[in-house]
Amino acid sequence: MATVAGKMDAWALHLRGLLLPLLFLGITGSQLQVTTAPSSTAHVGSGALLQCRFDVGGPVALDSLRVTWYFWDKQLACYEQGRSQAHPKASLPSEKELENGNASLSLTAVTVPDEGIYRCVVWYGTQQHQGKTTLHMLAAPMISIPRQTAVADAETSLLCHVGRFYPVDVDVAWLRDGQVLKGSTCSRPQRNPDGTFNLTLTYTFTPTLSDAGSVFSCHVYHAALEQLQQEDIPLDILEADKTGTMVGAILGILIGAGAAAATAIYFWRKRKRDWAVSYNVSEVQVPERCMLGQEVTLHCSMEGTFPKDVAVTWERIHSEDRMVPDSGKDQESPEHQPLFPALPPGWRVTEERAGTRLTSSLIFTPTLQDDGAWVQCFFLHEYKLIREHRVSPVIQVWARPQVSEIQVLPEWDPRDKVPFAVQLHNFYPREVPPIQWGWDGAGSWREDPAQIDKNADGTFTATSIWRVPSRSLTWPELRVRVCVQHGPGEPPSERELSLRAAGVWGLCGV
């Protein structure tokens, strides 16, 4: 009997030795597969979803799963043992989605620097597999055609400013009455701080009175556009002033690649002598973001040799505005029509002359109506002939959100998770800033507010909810924290709430 028992014990030990590797093989021996899309495309400012699916050959055990996303060599997001951590712009799927094999990465408010190669790395037990995908960025060009009133028999330059586009490849052309014009010159694309590009297409010609009413069009085609984009400008012709002293015209505008100013030369006839006159006109600089309700000052200056009676005026334009005044309004002749509409209420202009430099300043307080607009600065002589003008970059209005205190919602769904909520009031634009939730050293990034509402004044309000398993809230002095990031150079808004102050201690089952 002892011999039989000994053989049985030996067999049991042998069987256990076989079963343990087989049980472990149920996790580690599965054939892990990871699938990603080769590439995806997103527009600047929008969200992006980078697809990543995995298959373990059976049900997914979350305690054996680890998912990590990398952008180039920088870690963006990670899930391991029930916890997710991610960069402010990134988030991973819920645990339910992970159990279904979905490890896709969501990105919010992507920009040009977000373009590149992303890696989805999945560990399951002792196995590891990864997939790569490339994110391509697109930014649709914006067209601006400065107001231009031409003078008969005087050389005129039509400018088409194409801005904020990406990638750099773009097709631009001037047309007249539907026919492509030859001889246009295009500046070298200039890169903006956000990675997008600007360029200017110039068509120079000498109009006659018979050209009045011709429609000039700027055509732009870009990969970010679903179809050809076009802006039209009917040409207004003024008869040359035969009694004035100004008999010359602008001979040329040099738009130098990368130059901060353009140089123009024209001739001034006075007392039967021709004087060569040159000057430089600075660019109009606009802050990257104009704070809603906070005063902004823009500058534009002319420096060099120019007539003393040169005047300066400013104009706000939107892409949908007509670039020239309505010549039929009130049946006025062109000589009596104002070349420029009045500035919006509250906008004011100052001038300062020092030696050979004339500086004009535009001071205004941005509103939501200014978002997406340009301003342009005009230098004129005798209020008829536009000698030089500069168009600013597009105005981007921004409003900092007002962050509420943290509250506990009265309804818990599911019942075993405590819903903490915070509201962001009166922010603009609609993109929600990154929101980080956590408690006493632990954290999990969230950027998916439950609801975004548009306010009557055009700003937005968002609600962010963070549900914490009640078993994780282990003592009454534990503090839940939320941090709202506002962007480079802006301090974050932080709020915190203790379980005792929230009145949930004892309700969490701990």
Itemize the secondary structure elements and their pairings:
Blueprint: H1 2-28, E1 33-36, E2 39-43, E3 48-50, E4 52-55, E5 65-71, E6 74-80, E7 83-86, E8 90-91, H2 95-99, E9 105-107, E10 116-124, E11 127-138, E12 142-144, E13 149-151, E14 156-165, E15 171-176, E16 179-180, E17 185-186, E18 190-191, E19 197-205, E20 215-221, E21 229-234, E22 236-238, E23 252-254, E24 261-270, E25 273-282, E26 290-291, E27 296-304, E28 310-317, E29 348-354, E30 357-364, E31 374-381, E32 385-391, E33 397-398, E34 402-403, E35 407-408, E36 417-427, E37 435-439, E38 442-446, E39 451-454, E40 460-469, E41 479-484, E42 493-498, H3 499-502
Parallel strand pairs: 2-11, 13-22, 26-33
Antiparallel strand pairs: 1-4, 3-9, 5-6, 5-10, 6-7, 8-9, 10-11, 12-14, 14-19, 15-16, 15-20, 17-19, 18-19, 20-21, 23-24, 24-25, 25-27, 27-30, 28-31, 29-30, 31-32, 34-36, 35-36, 36-40, 37-38, 37-41, 39-40, 41-42
